[in-house]
Amino acid sequence: MLKHLFIRNFAIIDELELDFNSGMTALTGETGAGKSILLGALNLVLGDRADNDSIKQGCEFAEIVAEFDIRQLDAVSAWLVSQELNADEECILRRRISKDGRSRAYVNSTPVNLQVIRELAEMLIDIHGQHEHQSMMKSAVQRQLLDDYANHSPLLESVSNIFVELKLVEDQLHHLQQTINEQNDRLDLLRFQTQELDTLALEEDEYQHLSNQHSRMANAEKINSTIQLAIHQLSDDENSNAQSSVSNTINSLNELSGIDKNVSPVTDLLQEALIQIDESVSLLKTYYDNIDLDTSQLEKVEQRIQNILDLARKHRIKPDRLQALHLQLKKELDDIDHVDERLDELIHSQKKLNESYVKACEKLSKSRSAAATKLNKKITQSMQTLGMSGGKFVIAIDPDTAKRSAFGHDNIDFTVTANAGQACKPIARVASGGELARISLAIQMIIANNSKISSLIFDEVDSGVGGGIAEIVGQHLRILGNGNSGTNKTGKASQVICITHLPQVASQAHHHLRVEKQTQKKQTTSQVVTLDNEQRRQEIARMLSGVDITEQSLAHADEMLERAQEV
Prior knowledge:
alpha/beta
């Protein structure tokens, strides 16, 4: 329930604080006094788009704070806990907009984005606008009203999830079928390219290995002469070679070691060097024996390298990338060869999902029909009290299996007749402006009566009605705010705030606020006054007779206020 509203520097409001109570509260005032400004401020703190033009002239920012009592709103408390927002007995929404275009939103002093505010606002308060009868002619609005009344969220979620999954599978199926049509030419090319690479039969790291082998074979003579010279200098030269020189040096030093042990480390190092020379000579001889001077083998290696280079140039890649390309093309070819299997899988999935979708839609449609029967009866009864005696309201539900959407396959149409004995026709074609406004009001009040939200605001929904009908509208709103009487037997405190220009409606309220516009020092501001009994009597009389309040209008106001106590 909305407990408190604070507004600063918004439109023509300097600073305003309002306390609200349970029951029905009437908000009245002369045209242009600022009733719509209050609603605009409330909408802003509930997540509407910010407009820095709404900041009071000469001010740097505007600020709106709304305080809600959530002791009876278990769902709101649970949601706040899930969002890690402090959940106590109160929930405070705050919105601040700056002249530079920046906007900040808070829930219980914690900064949040507007989506969080909007999601929370849907659980806190429900606003019914005066122009909703115009949007009610749209089929989407009619469907939503019926689904809201029937609490169809779980059924709609099921239908929507299946629809999204089905759409995804159908998109994949369509793409695959297009791909199949485009792949015939690609298939021939892939088969030719993979056959070329199969024939080449390139092994892993083969190109690098061949390059190294070719380098050795192409320089075999130089390698041969160099190795021979090294072996000769290390061991085969009879006159002077490294092995003999080191060996002789070791023998000489061994003779000295008997005289001085300090030369022993040198002898040990030379001994190791001799061993290294011996191993080097052995390796060089083995290498020399394996030098390939076969020119025919060189030609084969060169031809193999050339084949690899030719195919690499053809595919415009480096030779060492050919093997990876081969694997890639083989996989693509394999995917195309198995496309029929994937096609069968998708067709099967489409069939199963379509069956699930039809069942979910049928379940939703059946529930809609049951809810429509109840709603038809309630709205038809309400029409009798709103000056349309003999009128009838019927929600036509026409399942269309060829139609598919996230909301099911039903065509939903609100039909009505204002006169007994006449067939119902679409509401947009048969209802006059006044009748449409009253039908809209009947629907809104019944929907609101089934709402789990404890705070309801009606913004001049009584527009287009008057006289005795207006008093009945006021009575309905009063009953709606009573909480434990009339048709609303929820056992919870209810709150109805009604912005109205009709005295018949305002007189039914439990509480009364008046919006006043004042001009001081060439500055216009709006203020809201909480009316006591006498002030309320004067305001009802003003609404009845205009500027000049007469004894007759005061007597009439007294009569209306007394009648309201009987409801």
